[in-house]
Amino acid sequence: MKWTENAWKEIEGIYTSVTEMPFNQELMSGTLSLDRFRFYMQQDGVYLAEFSRALALIAARCFNHPYTLDFIRFAERAVVVERSLHEGYFRQFNVTGDAEASPTCHNYTQFLLTKASLDQVEVAMAAVLPCFWIYKKVGDHIYQYQDGKNNPYQDWIDTYAGEEFGLLVEKAIEICDDVASRCSDLQREQMTKAFVMASRLEWMFWDSAYQLEKWPI
Ligand SMILES: Cc1ncc(C[n+]2csc(CCO)c2C)c(N)n1
């Protein structure tokens, strides 16, 4: 069995819970409050700045030149394409930049940067995979079940349900399977652990936006 098939089984419950959480249900129906979406967008801006650095670090640490180029493309997309989605919404909903990271956003980005800089590169690749894969699945899920009428969040949905993003996700999955096939059982276990932790943090990221999470002190 491929590593990614096994890894997905481990997070099946988390993924189902992600699709059922109020943030995504309301995003799908278009009823999500602007406050919550604004909070999400602002935190996602902070997230993307750090996430692209993690991807660039992985690119630099790859042993294989095609993979270096793939991760450079992923990092570029995180900055350029996602930024344009953000900028559109920032203008439309009067979101201002320069937010301070929320506790969950801080937790997630620091986890990814630590994995990308200190762990074996294969483990770092597994840690960033949920960001691609869960977003694709959630995008497709919402696209399939929404009624598609006047949803203010349609651009967000179309970005992640789109074909271009799908190809990127397939590539990220393929790379993880290839590197995992040359790892020891112990290394594969570490990859799975990182994949599961990042998936929990994805869940928490949406939840923290719904709760408009604040630092307790
Ligand atoms: C918390 C959070 N997780 C994942 C994504 C989705 N995403 C952001 S950059 C990128 C890869 C681009 O190469 C993907 C899939 C997001 N926006 N916010």
Rg, rounded, reads 17 Å
CATH architecture: Up-down Bundle
Extract low-pLDDT stretches: none
Order of helices and strands: HHHHHHHHH
Measured distance between first and last alpha carbons: 47 Å
Q: Which structural category do the helix and sheet elements fall into? A: mainly alpha
Strand content: under 5%
Q: How confident overall, as mean pLDDT?
A: 93
Fraction in helix: over 70%
Mind telling me the CATH class? Mainly Alpha
CATH fold assignment: Heme Oxygenase, Chain A
How many β-strands, per DSSP?
A: 0
Count of alpha/pi helices: 9
Small molecules bound: the ligand Cc1ncc(C[n+]2csc(CCO)c2C)c(N)n1
Tally of separate domains: 1
Please, what is the CATH homologous superfamily? Heme oxygenase-like
Major sheet, described briefly? none
Shape: globular
Protein name: Aminopyrimidine aminohydrolase
GO molecular function, one term: thiaminase activity
InterPro entries: Haem_Oase-like_multi-hlx, Thiaminase-2/PQQC, Thiaminase_II, Thiamine_Salvage_TenA
Catalytic activity: thiamine + H2O = 5-(2-hydroxyethyl)-4-methylthiazole + 4-amino-5-hydroxymethyl-2-methylpyrimidine + H(+); 4-amino-5-aminomethyl-2-methylpyrimidine + H2O = 4-amino-5-hydroxymethyl-2-methylpyrimidine + NH4(+)
Main attributes?
single chain; 217 residues; mainly alpha; Heme Oxygenase, Chain A; 81% helix; binds the ligand Cc1ncc(C[n+]2csc(CCO)c2C)c(N)n1
Care to describe what's here?
There is one protein chain. This protein is mostly helical. It has a single domain, classed as Up-down Bundle (Heme Oxygenase, Chain A), CATH 1.20.910. Helix content is 81%, strand content 0%. It contains nine helices and no strands.
